[in-house]
Amino acid sequence: MRQALIIIDMQEIFFNHPQNYLFNRNQLVQNINILIKQAHEKNIPVIFIQHTDPNEQDELFEGKDDWKLHQNLLFSSDDKIIRKSKWDAFYQTELLDYLKSKKIEQLIFAGVQTEFCLDTTIRAAYSLGFQNNLLFPNTQSTINGSVLQADDIINHHESIWNNRFLTVINGEVKL
């Protein structure tokens, strides 16, 4: 089964400002880098999704420091970057066409934020026919919300996604 690794919104905004610090952010970057390294070794396409706001005043406007992909990610020039402006990485982007052109059947998800862009994209992928997707432990995160703490948001979403929209792999981060 042809796979692709999709890394959503791992941008500097979540590392530059304490109010935006991701839960377990150092472990998150380390685990995503493990996935990236393994994907590169196995010739699995790596796709970075980068949220881009059309408003020049927004911190995620193209070119601003917070907009950039996190500097510690193992990005390769062979990796694909797809910019999005909505929570769904498929909405008005080239993602679906790109996956079809590569004959991808299974998506491996990682990134942020659990309850926003990650959740929306995971559900959209399932509805678009990608129904055997994977998520590895500690490869996605979010920030504390006004009602729930980040770890509760993560656990809740993983329990909803597992065996419905994807399979949450227990154990080691290994492709």
Report the helical percentage. Answer: 25-40%
Number of spatially distinct domains: 1
Beta-strand percentage range: 15-25%
Characterize the overall form: globular
| Mean pLDDT metric | 97
Strands ordered across the widest β-sheet: 3-2-1-4-5-6
Question: Mind summarizing the main beta sheet?
Answer: 6 strands, parallel
The top-level CATH class is Alpha Beta
Features:
175 residues; alpha/beta; Rossmann fold; six-stranded parallel beta sheet; globular
Would you mind describing this structure in some detail?
The chain has 5 helices and 6 strands, in the order E-H-H-E-E-H-E-H-E-H-E. Strand 5, helix 5 and strand 6 (167-168) form a beta-alpha-beta unit. It has 175 residues and is an alpha/beta fold. Helices cover 31% and strands 19% of the residues. The relative contact order is 0.21. It starts with a strand and ends in a 7-residue tail after the last strand.
What is the structure about, briefly put?
InterPro entries: Isochorismatase-like_dom, Isochorismatase-like_hydrls, Isochorismatase-like_sf. With about 180 residues, this protein is of the alpha/beta class.
Helices and strands, with pairings:
Blueprint (H helix, E strand, L loop, with lengths): L2 E6 L4 H4 L8 H17 L4 E6 L28 E5 L10 H7 L4 E7 L1 H14 L6 E8 L8 H12 L5 E2 L7
Parallel strand pairs: 1-2, 1-4, 2-3, 4-5, 5-6
